[in-house]
Write the C-alpha cells for this entry.
Amino acid sequence: MRRLWLSLVLLLAVFLILSSLAEVQQIAETLRRGNPLWLGLALVLQWVWLGNLALTLRSVYRLLGLESSTTQLLHLVIVSNFVNTVAPSAGVGGMAVFISDARRRTLSTARVAIAGVLFLILDYFSFLCVLTLGLVVLFRRNNLTGIELGGAAIFLVIALAIAAVLVGGIISPAKSERVLLRAVRGVNHLLEPVLKRSYLSEAHAHEFALEAAAGLSVLRTHWLEYVPPTLLSLLSKALMIGILMLAFLAFGQPFSSGTLVAGFSLGHLFTIISPTPAGIGVVEG
C-alpha cells in the first residue's frame, strides 16, 4: 500500500505539472511585471509561514508527549503540503506523511494520528475566525451569495465532523474502539473476495485503539495548554493574509483590509472544499 500511495502521489504530481504547463509562460510574464522587492518579501514570508506550521505541529506533538525537532517537522510540513496540493482531501491526505514518519521513527502511530487531527481542528478553527470576518465584509458590501454561504456550510460540516471524532474518542474510548473494529471488518468484508484474505488485522486495530485511548487521555489537560498552538495557528492565517497583501503591493493594485480578508477567506475556503487539486480550475476564476 505504501508503494501504491507513493505511485498515486507521483502520478497526481505529474498531472498537476502537465495541466499547468500552458500557464507557465503566463506566470513567468506576470512575475516579470511585479516589483521584485515585494515578491522577494512574499517569498520570505512564505518560508516564515512554513516554519510557523512546524512550530504549531511541535506544540501539538508536545501536548501528546511526542518529541520531535522543529527541523524534522518542517520537512514533514513541506511534504504534506505538497501531498495536499496534488491530492485534494480537505487537508487530511497529508496526515499519511506524518504516520509514515512515525512508523519509521518508532513513534506511536495512534498518537501521531491524534496529533494530526488536533492540528487540523486548530487550523480549521483559526480559519473559521477569518472566514467569519470575510463573510461579514461581503455582507456589508452586498456581495454575499448562496455560493459563499454554501461553501462555508460545507466547510463547517467537515470541521464539526472531524471535531466530533476527536471529542468522541476522548469521552468514550471503548465506543471508539468498537467503531474502529466495525470499520476494519467492513473493509475486510469488501476486499476478501478479491484478496482471498483479511486485508486489515483486528489485533492491530485493537492495539491502535489502546494507544489512541492513552493519547486521548493526555488531551484532558488544562485549557491553557491549548493556548500556544491556537495562537500559532491564528498567526499562520495572519501570515497568509500578509503574503496576499505583498502580492497586491508587488503589482501596484489598490486594496483595503476588507478586500484582503474577504479575498483570502474565499480563496482558502474553496481550496479546502474544491474537488480539484489546490483549487485549480473553476475556483481560480
